[in-house]
């Protein structure tokens, strides 16, 4: 069977698309009013190393969600390609995949080395302090972790208790302030403390830039789409580690 690349997909009423992809990430969208799952977000990667967002609506979760496991490969047939207009979408893109009750999902066996485990479009840390309010998509960043503070409790609206961890990432020239919240903060602290290789370099996918208009400072925070990996086996991490050793004369 011939498969379509993401660049071939077009917004239309057509459903007879066929793709071969790896699932990079999965997360739920929760309705903040009732706590119910509104749907499932997926991020797929194809053989051209491109990413595409996919949506499973709540009525199809029981039928489709159990089929998907991160890092696994899939052939997916029959779906809709629609505009991607969500606010703070997980990365900059203009179209997305919508699975339907006619979608057929087949897990692929064997090794598909042409499709990587993940793909990033790293934002230069230099650009983050000047982020504007109209930035509507989340970003990927990579940097050396430094100045990690202990998790601290905070209270926001209606006296709801939260936990935050603050730290910085640097590319050895520019520093960016990071603030992770609640379970994400705990997960970060636990993984950071377990790292044996230093400096610890973190890749953060789909994080949000928050600009304080009073101070003019921009902080990077986690969103529902955010994920992180420490000391990942990706070229940008290896390059940054080499630069660190050069700067420190090691």
TrEMBL record:
<dbReference type="InterPro" id="IPR012340">
    <property type="entry name" value="NA-bd_OB-fold"/>
</dbReference>
<feature type="domain" description="Replication protein A 70 kDa DNA-binding subunit B/D first OB fold">
    <location>
        <begin position="13"/>
        <end position="107"/>
    </location>
</feature>
<dbReference type="InterPro" id="IPR003871">
    <property type="entry name" value="RFA1B/D_OB_1st"/>
</dbReference>
<dbReference type="Pfam" id="PF02721">
    <property type="entry name" value="DUF223"/>
</dbReference>
<protein>
    <recommendedName>
        <fullName>Replication protein A 70 kDa DNA-binding subunit B/D first OB fold domain-containing protein</fullName>
    </recommendedName>
</protein>
